[in-house]
Amino acid sequence: MQSTSRVALRPLLRARRTLATATAGHHAPSAPAAEAKRATAAIPLSNLEAQWALLSPDEKSSVAEQLEELQKRDWKSLSQDEKKAAYYVAFGPHGRRKPIHEKGDGFKILLSVMGAVGVSGVLFYAIRHASPPPPQTMSKEWQEAMNERALEQKMNPITGIASEGYKGPGFVTHK
């Protein structure tokens, strides 16, 4: 099914390629007899950087193809505009190479991050203020009593609190 749809679309794709040219004098390669040779309006290569965003994807591909053909010639014979256009199409800030942030966005990002940190700080202290006090088992006295109970029960006699020469804090987490 897929191969028959591709075969049926081939003449349309050829016609589409013949319509997308970048120079006035450039004609499309010969196609089947039903298709006539067509020339389209020229896209000037001078100041291509300013025009690139306004071009359709078909025009962009035709300019790229035209520049590919130009680059096959001797580079010394290319004009300065052609060299600039070839460089811009190959390495310019468009498509995937377009910068994520525009110039001047750094301050907006800084303010946004500071605002988010501020809101999270206010939210943290509001939740802490609204929460109940810590449980009784978190007090220092309770934890020291737990140490004494662990020694009475000889809890973890090999490496823990009941072992010989133990110098750790045990259950006490407060200083």
UniProtKB/TrEMBL annotation:
The GO cellular component terms are: mitochondrial inner membrane; respiratory chain complex IV
Q: Which UniProt keywords apply?
A: Membrane, Mitochondrion, Mitochondrion inner membrane, Oxidoreductase, Transit peptide, Transmembrane, Transmembrane helix
What is the top-level taxon of the source organism?
A: Eukaryota
Q: Report a single Gene Ontology molecular function.
A: oxidoreductase activity
Show the Pfam families listed in the entry.
COX4
What InterPro entries does the record point to? Cyt_c_oxidase_su4_fam, Cyt_c_oxidase_su4_sf
Any one GO biological process:
mitochondrial electron transport, cytochrome c to oxygen
Per the record, the pathway is:
Energy metabolism; oxidative phosphorylation
Please report the record's description of how this protein sits within the membrane.
Answer: Single-pass membrane protein
Where in the cell is the protein located?
A: Mitochondrion inner membrane
Taking the first listed entry, what is the main subcellular location of this protein, grouped into a coarse class? mitochondrion
Gene3D superfamilies in the record: Cytochrome c oxidase subunit IV
In the record, the note on similarity to other proteins reads: Belongs to the cytochrome c oxidase IV family.
Q: What is this protein called?
A: Uncharacterized protein
